[in-house]
Write a structure and sequence with these properties.
Blueprint (H helix, E strand, L loop, with lengths): L1 E6 L6 E2 L1 H14 L8 H5 L6 H7 L7 H15 L5 E2 L3 H9 L2 E6 L4 H10 L9 E2 L12 H9 L7 E7 L2 H9 L3 E5 L6 H4 L6 E2 L2 H10 L1
Helix pairs in contact: 1-4, 3-4, 5-10
């Protein structure tokens, strides 16, 4: 049975923490919002859509899209310089591509993600990306996974499909889409949280891929 692997990005393959956190502070300053939280409050929400993050951080609902716009304007200019590949990310993709078809399922904006991944020379491993702009309902809703299945033109009955991610959002989406969720501990989720949704939890994406290969 052909294997399919969907990868999350932030905390799974790449580390863009500095870019994300600094851009939130930039938007707060630009829109004169007094943020009383901490870096950790921002990091705890990474993986959720930007509009959800801003509201959770105290921005009024009617202003959230102004902050999202300010965020995107700045993020697209600094993301490449302030994002790095996580340890073993390339090795995991090289191995995964040797036995499976790959795609990305992320909450990041696709139009900014593609240049970033091309700069890192890893876009070549993927058949496509399902990002925030391709769906109405982002993770933890299963819609992004359904879209990725459609993108690859596959059927669940004849394929062994996995979702690798570092947060409960990835694993909930996988569970609700009735595919196999695999958690990694190299990002923002903690073991106790991830273990509520899967028994397959590994140190990083390379260990996760090695596990999938053996399944």
């Amino acid at each position: 049975m052909e294997k399919i692997i969907f990868f999350d990005l932030d905390g799974t393959l790449i580390d863009s923490t500095d870019a994300i956190v600094s851009t939130f502070y930039h938007s707060f300053k630009e829109l004169e919002f007094e943020f009383n939280g901490s870096d950790e409050d921002i990091k705890a929400l990474i993986g959720y859509p930007l509009d959800v993050m801003y509201v959770e951080l105290g921005v009024e609902d009617e202003r959230k899209w102004d902050f999202v716009d300010a965020y995107k304007q700045r993020y697209r200019t600094i993301s490449i310089a302030q994002t790095t590949l996580l340890q073993n990310a390339v090795a995991s993709l090289e191995l995964a591509s040797s036995f499976a078809r790959l795609a990305i399922v992320t909450t990041k904006t696709t139009q900014y993600t593609i240049p970033l991944l091309e700069h890192m020379d890893i876009m070549k491993y993927f058949e496509g990306i399902i990002g925030r702009q391709e769906v109405k309902n982002p993770k933890p809703h299963p819609e992004p996974i359904y879209k990725a299945i459609e993108l690859l033109n596959i059927d669940k009955e004849n394929h062994d499909i996995y979702m690798i991610g570092d947060t409960k959002l990835d694993l909930i989406a996988a569970k609700d889409a009735k595919i196999k969720g695999v958690g990694v501990l190299c990002g923002y989720g903690q073991f106790d949280e991830l273990s509520s949704y899967t028994n397959a939890i590994f140190r990083d994406s390379l260990e996760a891929v090695k596990h999938i290969k053996k399944c």
